[in-house]
Amino acid sequence: MSTTIFETLESDVRSYCRHWPAVFESARGCRQYAEDGQVYLDFFSGAGALNYGHNDPDLKRELIAHLSADGIVHSLDTYTSAKRRFLETFERLVLRPRGLDYKVQFPGPTGTNSVEAALKVARLATGRREIVHFTDAFHGMTLGALAATGNATKRAGAGVPLPFTITAPYDGYLDDPDAALTWLGRAWEDSSSGLDVPAAVIVETVQGEGGLRAARAAWLQGLERLCRQHGVLLIVDDVQAGCGRTGTFFSFEEAGIRPDVVCLSKSISGYGLPMALTLFRPELDVWEPGQHNGTFRGHNPAFVTATAALEKYWSDGTFAEEVRQRGRELEEELGRIAALVEGAVRRGRGLLTGVWFPDPGLAGRIAGAAFERHLLVETSGPKDEVLKVMPPLNISRADLLEGTQVLLDAVRAVLG
Ligand code: PMP
């Protein structure tokens, strides 16, 4: 029965890339339940969209209460109580305690909408054309975000070369750690270099899809300095690394930088509902009303769960400290895996981390062996050479260790 359903899905869904032979029906916390009764531990978390796990009971209660009271679901750009509560809570629990002053734009339902809004506003505010992005970056699938994505396969999906972006080496891409920033600075100063001063630089502090490379704090600070010197806007894409993934609410907090624009999505709704924010410095509020709108940028059930998630997890520093502790435990466990394979190293930060393997096929085979042992884990990187380990942030130590033990068994099985 389930094989038939799986075969039907396989033949009817176009461009499907995730081959987990199971049909999932329900989920709670860090576990997913398939139609055939099998239980899977989720170390994938919707690629960062489920930082608080599946169906968090407190968030679910708020959502059900909102729907039961005939609360507004769709509101487009009108004012609603749920939207006001979210904005007040975001200001009180996220922006103010960090001394951040940003205007909040609802750019559309997903991460790529947030990036698109960031690129547009940067070009309008500066009157400049180019956007600098980094090797192996991932910023989304719409044309602007894709043009800033350093992945040949994804870019090829657009058919013809994408305009107006320049690729620079990410931290760690070159042997000389300072070479990339030196090159950018010199080229921007030299009007004959062929590199115009761009509108913005867009960066991920940890490259989620690009292979779990984490930029050093000093490199991010250098990048910020360089941008300030040349009047270039700094956009941090925190779609995947944000909302606590790296152990602080924003992934750039540890480096102490202050981006001009920040992109958030994935876990901001707290419940896996579509929601995105673009945060920008008040001076960058340059759009006339209607210059950036969209039908689904006022999704009130998402505002309700987003507010509940902030209240539950971010009203003090306890949760962030727990995430950092789980991150340290995970790093230790991944170290044991890396030690089994010569050349394997760990990358990433907090609970956005993984293991890089010198043999590009290995990570995929290990993910397959992990699935057979009922653990959902993904690969990332330009050649899918990195095993990407992303459990929900509120996972217990016992569940974390259960999952890493499965991973260790999967690695041993693949190595033979
Ligand atoms: N930016 C980053 C850093 C991402 O990881 C992603 C999604 N993986 C996106 C943007 C695009 O988000 P979405 O898939 O929601 O459009």
Automatic annotation (TrEMBL):
One GO biological process term: ectoine biosynthetic process
An annotated Gene Ontology molecular function: diaminobutyrate-2-oxoglutarate transaminase activity
Domain of life where this protein originates: Bacteria
PROSITE patterns the record matches: AA_TRANSFER_CLASS_3
Similarity comment: family membership: Belongs to the class-III pyridoxal-phosphate-dependent aminotransferase family.
NCBIfam families, per database record: dat, ectoine_ectB, PRK09264.1
Name listed for the protein in its UniProt record: Diaminobutyrate--2-oxoglutarate transaminase
Organism: Kocuria dechangensis
